[in-house]
## 1
Amino acid sequence: MIVSTINVNGVRAAVRQRSAENLGLLDWLERTDADVVCLQETRADDSQLAEALSPVLAPARSEGWHLASAEPHLKGRSGVAVLSRAVFSDVRIGVAGFEEHGRYLEVDLPCGTTVASVYVHTGEAGTDRQAEKERFMASLAARMAELADSGREAVLCGDWNIAHTEHDIKAWKANVKKAGFLPSERQWVTGLTESGWVDVMRRVQSEGPGPYSWWSWRGKAFDNDAGWRIDYHLATEPLAARVRSARVEKPAAYALRWTDHAPVTVEFDRG
């Protein structure tokens, strides 16, 4: 089973063909070997998302993707989705207190695995926005504890907007007091991994720096690989034990980018 995650930074922009070489998200979805793709920051309601992705969706295409989505409660913000080759067995939206925010979507697959698309929004230290981020993190952790206790194999994929360690951010010394690399945020991720959730990329590639998955559009951040690793697959141990490979699909050149993130793709042996 191959599971990819990608923050599309607005799906209607991501599907746009930028050049003869940069064909956008739809082309990537046509070519990927993934069985499941988690999307974040769609910034679209359910109908807008379905319209943007319609060229690659079932049933219009016999081998098209099946789509589940959680639209944002504020226009132009958040929004998550899951695309699957197989029909979903069940779909659940939201975590406690954030049922309509478009930040969490959980699906059960016919193989028995639960996959969730997660978007932890950016914060700003010392502000109400950071406080809301931390409330969402607490609710998300509670749901993850429930999943772990259920005994189901599960993987939560997405943009967590937290660089866990110094190996996950190029300019870590300049960011120690900034949201996304605050000690409290990093400790929260440590708490998840200590409770049994596995950072699958680090299971495969234990040493850093990187591989980074987000680079600013500005300056030479992309060319110099001055990025952040904030897009994770966190899996229960039985599933993580079957990981075969993990990679960041960084574009070969700045001009080939259709989002400021890159897809992160993990392959698991089938159980």
## 2
Amino acid sequence: MDSNKLKLRLEDISEVNPALTCYHRDDPAPVLPLREEPDLLSWLENTGRLVAEKDGDSQEISTIEEAPEDIFSMTSSVDNSPDSHQDIEIVFKNGFPVGINDEFLTPVEIIQKANDLAGNHGFGRIDMIEDRVVGIKSREIYETPGLLLLIKAHKELESITLNADVIDFKGIVEKKWGQLVYQGFWFGPLKESLDAFISSTQTSVNGRVKIRLYKGNAIVIGRMSENNSLYREDLATYSKDDVFNHSLAEGFIYMWGMSNKIWAELNSKTKE
């Protein structure tokens, strides 16, 4: 496999979103030229980052109303999605998606194909109440079929390749990471430290995940990791071939529940 195919080409960025600009990790963060522009809107207009609103584009709806179908461009409605399911397989290496259905792709190609596959089956819409940094609640409606599909597959592969305590703590890290990015601290020291932790957990996230796409759903139907799976069928099975020594459970249960046993005995005496 050509290693260059796995490298993100800078010219591909504009194909996904012409408003995006790619900066290298070591480049200084761009600063809004507030002294040259009277306000943020003017800066967005002058730099081509503000898309002019067409007549009829703006639709105000209450929090209980269903979002109008015409606001979606990447995802089919459930009614218009195919009547038969489609099974796909996503391949990961060191935590990164590298292929779909045994076709190895660049990062941009992965996103594009995932968008097409998931969006066609009506998967990838988000309708939520969001808390802005300034404290205002707003209803936000997004569609991101490809990313939601890849995130779902990635989490499933982590479930078989990472220890339970790592998965639990990583969930806390992910939430904080998202908050930092949302608040604009992409280049902050805490975000950089969290990046290092996340990267360290991904060296064993190798394998593939099977997902069934159907009528707005992405259902995991299988997962495997040839070299990094922590799943042991001989330990997990409920059959007679189970190799786990169940006699060890008695001592474990006694030790595990000792603190609660002491607390219960003490409190029962106090109540008497």
